[in-house]
Amino acid sequence: MIVRDGRTTLTPYWEMSFPEEDEGHLQPESEYVEELRGLLVDATRVRLRADVPVGAYLSGGLDSSTIAAIVRSRTTSPLETFSIAFTDPDFDESDFQTTMAGALGTDHHVVRATHADIGRVFPEVVWHAETPMMRTSPAPMFLLSRLVKESRFKVVLTGEGADEFLAGYDIFKEAKIRRFWARQPDSKLRPGLLNRIYPWIPGLTGSSQAQSFFGVGLLETASPYYSHSPRWRTTARAKRFFSAETRQAIQDSGDDLAPFYPDGFERWDPLNRAEYLETSIFLSQYLLSSQGDRMAMGNSVEGRFPFLDHRVVDFCNRLPARLKLRGLTEKYLLKEVSREWLPAEITDRPKQPFRAPIHRAFFNDSPPDYVEELLSPSAIDRAGYFNPHAVDHLVARLRQGLPLSETDDMALAGIISTQLVDRQFVSGPGPSSPLDDTDDVKVVIGQGSTTREQACP
Question: CB-based burial of residue 106 (10 Å sphere; 0-12 exposed, 13-18 middle, 19+ buried)?
Answer without folding.
Answer: buried
